[in-house]
Design goal:
There is one protein chain. A hairpin with a 5-residue loop joins strand 2 and strand 3. The longest helix is centred in the last third of the chain and has 6 residues. The chain is globular. The protein has two helices and 28 strands. With 356 residues, it is mostly beta strands. The protein has a nine-stranded antiparallel β-sheet, with no helix packed on it. Strands 17-26-25-22-19-20 form a six-stranded antiparallel β-sheet, with no helix packed on it. A five-stranded antiparallel β-sheet has the order 1-2-3-4-5, with no helix packed on it.
Amino acid sequence: MRGVQREPFGTMPDGELVERFTLTGAGGVRAAVLSYGGVIQSLFAPDRHGAMADVVLGYDTLEQYRGDRSYLGALVGRYANRIRDGRFSLDGHDYTLARNEGTSHLHGGIRGFDKVVWSVEPFEHERGVGLVLGHVSPDGDEGYPGTLIVRVTYTLTDSNALVVEYLATTDAPTPVNLTQHSYFDLRGESGRDILAHEIELAASQFTPVDETLLPTGELRDVRGTPFDFTTPHPIGARIADADEQLRFSGGYDHNFVLDRMDDTSLVLAARVHEPTTGRGVDVFTTEPGIQFYSGNFFDGSFVAKGGRRYPRRSGLALETQHFPDSPNQPSFPSTVLRPGHELRSRTEYHFVVRPS
């Protein structure tokens, strides 16, 4: 039945309550969202026969999410992706951030937005059901300047789309790059790899990386490389090619530069199709890039939902975003938010069924 269900999920060490909200749309898709990390814990979508299955990776308990290092289903900030050496300069001031991946700052640091409890307000309207999540990141949080006020709205529409809208303001100049970090297995938590999933990316360039997975600053043409997904290809078709970029990351873990006519319109970023079930997801965004990650670092070492263990490449992430390390790359689109301005961004995940 269409609506929002609210229930306790667990308690933080300081006694703060974590809740789970189950969104059910009129079109049949159902999603469970946690106030902890804004996590999308589950998302049930139909296959070509109408059978429902959970198509995102996750955990059963709050304790598992608190120990998670893979950002399963979480909201990521203040800065999604990597910043080289955890450093940047802005308006003549040097800033040092928390370093949580070697010498790099990754996905907001040691206690990023994925590790906080968000305020949540459910709603229903004529287009669907949803949640408004809020968080205030104080000045100096993980090394960032300024107090950042963030609001993220999840809307599950009656046409089986999950819409994610970001809004942020600040009282001092600061870099901001927000994303949603769900991992998809469109077969439905199969516990197998996603290499047969077919993917198409609306990107004729990508940002190559060095051995530390930081961008070099180059925008490279995808033509003639294993990174050309301008037409659909199975993820596994070229993932083992003798390519330096694939070797650095153990597969795909790269930012793709989206082909767009302007800086603000909602454009198609990606299409994914799983042939055996017919399930698909089409991703639209106002962001300039999308990080395609093929789950290369999963190794079956942690227990997830239903006691499953996720082997290598058992989920794929499609993180709409500005480019990695933009604070240190002046040629990349700026991620600096200034007082008196708003960050507004929108990403839509349309869950569809395709013919075999």
